[in-house]
Amino acid sequence: MIGYIKPDPDEFKVKELKIYNAYYCGICTSLARKYGPFSRLILSYDATFYSILEDAFSDSQRKFGKVRCPLPPFQKRMVVKGKSVDIGTEFSKFGFDLKIDDIKRDSNGIKHLLSFALVQFKTNENFFRISKPYLDKILFCEMTEEPDPMEVADQFGRFAESIARSSKNLERSSMMIYLIGRWVYLIDALDDLEKDFKSKNYNPFLLKYKSLLGGEESFKEIKDKEKASIDFLMVRIQEEFAKIENDMVMNKNLIENVLFYGMPKVMKKVFEKKDDKV
Amino acid sequence: MKDPYEVLGVRHGATKEEIRDAYRELIKKYHPDKFRDNPDMKNLAEEKVKEINEAYNYLLDHQDDGSSSSVNSGDQQIFDQVRKKIDGGDLYGAEDLLINISDKSNPEWYFLSGLIYFKQGWYDKAESYLRYAHEAKPENKEYDEVYRQFLRSSRHNYNPTMSGNPNQGGGMNDEVGTCLSCCAALACADICCHCI
Asked: Which residue ranges contain the repeat TPR (chain B) (predicted)?
């Protein structure tokens, strides 16, 4: 579920790329400070997007700082500081906690053992409390093998939206975040078709198109059938962006890049399934 | 907001036997006793079973009416409120109101539900609900307009990275392409002429 909301760096202006990287590095350093150096590994594009969106409607001035980065250790990097980065940090940690919970529940063998070694203090009680009803519903869908992908995606969208509603600035874009949540779930499920089929994991698309499965081309066929619905979702996301873009104080271009270039690019990769991982 | 036929997974106009079979199947699948060791999941299963029971009872009660298209005044009032909520962007509020409508075979009900699905980016459901409303009342201008708008936006997709494929948005269609290449050929010819 992680890493689908990314930008297309080729389409950035140079200064936009610098600002995007400042957010990215800002979350990374803030993670290291709060949760130790290894937590840098849980940094994600999605958390960066939340931070950027949070600042888009913020009234206060954005603050920059200079921080030394271990990679490479000689030069200092520009980072963003402040509330938006804290939200991104918490969101990263929360995403990681969920992932650990998921592994504890599902898999066995080495991953299962490792997950217990990684037990850390839970910090995002707030996020957990807000999103619990939706997480439960998603789990319920998995346990009962819900065959309609849209139904599960709806719950995932509400889950993303519930987190957005916890912040005043993000609330204005809650409809867009709901749609993005849906999109992420569906893209992730389509991306993992082969993997889930082999490992017999739950994937709503495999249940919806049970009769198609078996042939070499079956995964491609499923993707072709679902393309229209994902395209439609993308258009709806862009429409919602158009509704709120005039209220944005800053970062408008960064968000535009993610929605109009980055996400379509991810989509293209999933549908054409090049060998490189999205 | 759910359509009782959809909850049970049967088509419109299914026979009593079909409805009963579908009902039994679902009750068996979601029986709360299956989730005895997990209280959260058990609650959700109970909710689901309640929803299935409601849909089943609704269909049993309304099976013989056929589709009566008369709208009673109470429903009409709710429909007006739903429209206001949708305009104001409160989709969840609108959904909650739609559940209370007693006559769920009304085209207006399908239209408004379809509109909400449209806004939520729910492609296949929006398609079937809006089409149903449109087919039930083809003379209604509004249904027709929204259904067309839906079809347009599902085809239109602004996507600059897909310019390699002319069938996708952003690419040029063949006619313009031929025209342009024609122009280009003439321009090249012109340059050559001057050179010679």
From this structure: 107-140
B45 lies in some domain: yes
Dihedral, CA of residue A139, residue A144, residue A147 and residue A153, to nearest 10 = -20
Q: What is the CATH number of the domain that holds B4?
A: 1.10.287.110
Give the number of other Cβ atoms within 10 Å of residue B107's Cβ: 19
Most confident of A30-39, A49-58, B76-85, B171-180: A49-58
CA distance B122 to chain A (A): 7
Lookup result for tokens 């909400």: B116
Contact B29 A136 (CB under 8 A): no
Quick one: what percent of chain A has pLDDT higher than 70? 91
**Residues 6 or more apart in contact with residue B192 via CB below 8 angstroms:** none
Cis check: omega of the bond before A72, within 30 degrees of 0: yes
Position B57 scores a pLDDT of: 85
- pLDDT for position A41: 85
Query: Mutate which of A144, A172, A175 to disrupt the B interface (most B C-beta within 10 Å)?
Result: A144
Which domain range does residue B12 map to?
Answer: 1-67
Report the residue of B2, B25, B157, B168 to disrupt the A interface, i.e. the one with the largest count of A CBs within 10 Å: B157
Question: Is B120 close to A183, i.e. CB distance below 8 A?
Answer: no
Q: CB–CB of A229 and B123 under 8 A?
A: yes
Is A228's CB within 8 Å of B123's CB?
yes
Residues of B within 8 A of A8 (CB-CB) are 161
> Taking CB atoms and an 8 Å cutoff, what residues of chain A touch B158?
235, 238, 260
Q: Which amino acid is at B110?
A: Y
> What is chain B's mean pLDDT, rounded?
77
B142 C-beta neighbours (distance < 10 Å), count: 12
**Gyration radius of chain A over CA positions:** 19
Average pLDDT of the residues in A112-121 = 60
Within a domain: B23: yes
- The answer to whether position B49 is within a domain reads yes
Domain borders along chain A are 9-272
Task: Give the C-alpha distances (Å, rounded to integers) separating B67 from B62, B71, B105, B107.
Answer: 9, 11, 6, 10
Partner residue facing B121 (CB), from A179, A228, A265: A179
Mutate to test the interface with A, among B120, B125, B129 (most CBs of A within 10 A): B120
In this complex, do B161 and A265 lie within 8 Å of one another by their Cβ atoms?
yes
Query: Cα torsion at A118, A123, A127, A132 (round to 10°)?
Result: 60
Rounded CA separation B134/B145 (Å): 9
Q: How many distinct structural domains can be found in chain B?
A: 1
